[in-house]
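Let us walk through a complete example step by step. Step one is to write down the protein sequence. Step two is to encode the small molecule, calcium ion, as a SMILES string so that its atoms and bonds are unambiguous. Step three, shown after the inputs, is the structure prediction itself.
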Amino acid sequence: MRILRQQSGMVLLLVLVVVTLLSALVIELAFSTLVDLRLTETFRDTSRAYYLAKGGVRAGRGILRMDSNGYDAPNDPAELWSLGVAQYPVAEGYLSVTIEDLGGRINLNALVSAGNVNPVIKSRLMRLFDELALSTGEELIAALIDWLDPDDRVYVDPEGRRAMGAETGAYLGGEKPVRCKNGPLDNLEELLLVRGFTPEIFKEIAPFVRLHGNDKINVNSAPAEVLMALSEDPEITRDAAEAIIERRSETPFKSPAELGWINELPGLANLLREPFTVTSDIYRIEATATVNDGVRRAEAVVNKTGDQLLYLKVD
Ligand SMILES: [Ca+2]
Ligand SMILES: [Ca+2]
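Step three: the predicted structure of the complex.
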């Protein structure tokens, strides 16, 4: 009953937003039709789908703005944003919206902060890449450090004293020469430009990383691989990670101190000093709109705090 109510709440909000957008769209389309009589039906449908998809992102942001229960946990019935909407009929088409919490992932851009390597993020990534059995983990991280840091000095591994990174010189000889970015990644696909990040490796690591927000990790949404990567001492074993996941599937964590309920997790005092939180700022909203043959998909990354749009792409 509760879920049904929440679903109708989400649908109602969607309808409100979409209807507002559609009225703007109708005016726009009437104008477009006047100035260009050659508009084909397909073009019109694609344009409608474009605006609907963008409206879907706006609706997603509206839903996130309404969330104020003090914790963020996907699949929890109290979390309206996590319900999403599938193939909801709007005007002559359909709209689907999903909202994904990215707060349980490791922030790749935080690997370099104010020009310097952040050793905490570096060791989390090392452990994550070990978990994923990526044999080139060290080289990948070195290349990513140089991609992100503002200088042109190739990263030297502080222990082995080996030059391991890749600045612009390493990219000029390839089939598609690029300049080293020397700045933060704007979207995840940009990783494919960084030396060593093959499409296979990209696919492996994509579900565990994000590009925005702080260093905190939401214990309510982090996958086991991320939980295990967070701390070496005390170690978070697979058993501990699975116990955390089992516990949160029954009741979400309302404060990091509740990790004390996990018997498999020793050294809690140390853990609580650093990575864990029970809320998320960063979310991905995906909206797909279909109007007859026209299909458009919008992907956005937003910061819930302050309703900030961090990234938007409409295909
Ligand atoms: Ca929440
Ligand atoms: Ca650099």
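Step four is interpretation. The chain is about 35% helix and 15% strand.
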